[in-house]
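hiii, so i know i said id send this last week but things got crazy w the move. better late than never?? heres the sequnce for the chain we talked about at the cafe, plus the structure i predicted for it. fair warning i was half asleep when i ran it
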Amino acid sequence: MLIALRIFKPQLFVRPLFYDRRALARRLFHDFHTEEAEEVVETTSKQQLAEVPTGYRTHTCGQLRIGDVGTTVTITGWVQKSRSKKIVFTDLRDRYGITQCIFPFPENDDDETVRALNEMAAKLGREDVVQVIGLVVERSNKNPNRLTGDVEIVASELIILNQSADPPFKIQDKTDGNEQIRMKYRYLDIRRNPVKEALLLRNRITRAVRNYLGNLEFCEIETPYLIKSTPEGARDFVVPSRMNAGQFYALPQSPQTFKQILMVAGMDRYFQIVKCFRDEELRADRQPEFTQIDCEMAFVEQEDVLTTFEGMVQSIFRDCTGKDFNVPFERMTWHEAMEEYGIDKPDLRYGMKLHYITDIVKGCGVGLIDDAEAVIAIKLDGVSKKGEMYASNKKIKKGLEKIATGQKVGAGGCIWCKVEEKKFSTNMKKLSQDQLKAWAEHMNAEAGDLMVAFAGPRLKTQEIAGKMRAEMGTLMGLRTPEKGFYPLWVVDFPMFEWDDEENRFTAMHHPFTSPKKEDMHLMATDPGAVRANAYDCVLNGVEMGGGSIRIHDQALQNRVFELLGFTQEEADEQFGFLLNAFTYGAPPHGGLAFGLDRMCQLVGGACGMPNDSIRDYIAFPKNNQGRDVMIASPSEIDQKQLEELSLDVNIRTGGASVTSI
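okay and structure toks below
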């Protein structure tokens, strides 16, 4: 659709005549000039000043400044809002910003062209796509919330390029659309500043990654999406092969084996910003398809990798937020993290370390405590003072105990002790006042503090206490972006962990991780004590990425497969291509992968963005059921396609099989 109206009397827009007319309009219709109060406040993205002229426009809607006054320009975009009472004020929006356009009311009955233009503008609807040609003038009532707020365009020509249906929700920062409807109309949601800015931030991050790694001689190489399925790790998404009936590809959970083969191939330094796929249960910070910054280096030791990529993290935050991190990042072993914080990705912006009070509370006569391998406590400073969140025992029972036994922490129960001026209150009545006093002294607790403890197997209890620490840190306001940023490396993870259900060891990271040289002798006698050359990069309690130094020796790789329960035949069947590559001179190598979606979320938080989910930084995300509601995917395929693939659909319902075709 193309509707155009032009004014061929440019003398009508001589500035003195116009300003007289506008002064009259302001007196009559001042409320129509306060449009920004309910609408979009522009951001200060570097993108706003972009000069991207095309055949349709000379300037963007975020480009015009006071220095452009007197210039005739052409802009295009979507109608954010149009306000009419004789003079028509139209806000035109594109990716770069918003510019106000005005369509004057004719001064006399002979100005039919001016009248027609005014009437045409008065009928504009929200989200109509238009082109406006006109003269840039200085605004008398400037808008400090807009980058273009010093100027406006007096329109001499209006072309409607396309008319819009009424949007199902408001296209503005604070919208009335719920997440479901916004996901269905994602192309409209992206027009909103919060989503648009999140995607532009993602673009800045990927450019920063490419610039940083490119300057260090990393080579960007693509790896296949249709690969071989393996049983280790999460469930694969599988793709049937029409040309090989009964056989299936898998979509990669990561390019792990391919990047190792690229090191064998002599590429030395590889990276890729790559889609990965895992068929696992979803939550707010997890998607079935996600993006990794995947990297590998040859002839490196662990410290080489850590130094290189803490520099990349530092560069990204500096370029995208203006914030700088000190390097080198702190190094903390996995054992230290679990002992002191109960989690392998601790948030070090606040204390609340774990305390071991097993010897203090044992002998109280409660079996769960007396028989426990470990009793582990944390201290919540000042939360029981008058007026605070846990000032009363009732609030502790309804609040703290509910959090401890909730899904996020998962404890069967907790022991708490409220420190008062002259006594201690607790839910564990069999603990004596002497034991409670010793507990408080051990933790340096003062009046108004609340101590919380858990009992059970050591590792499990550490994990529960660590989750409680994280939840309470959030609740107490200790984890907000205003508290700053604390990056670190967690290193020396266990190589293996025991799986009680399968009655075998599994790889904590993946089976290609190299054990530490000093622990090699434990492979045969005590595999559970072997430490891996593995590392995670953590920021504010969030794992940004992780990796390891890889096994590059075929004999050692076979030995690890054997410990993981693979027969030689199974290892050859699944990973023979990699083992074979190792026979042709594999160099020492290592690498890591960062989650791009999660990194965007962290950088966005540092920028003060309101987005609290990785979905906000993905153009077309899936919902919590793994569905794309915009394109109605996944969906059934027709019978002809199934026949071409030699497939039948057999849906299992309540334990029974139902063949649908």
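btw The mean pLDDT is 89. thought thatd interest u
miss u guys!!
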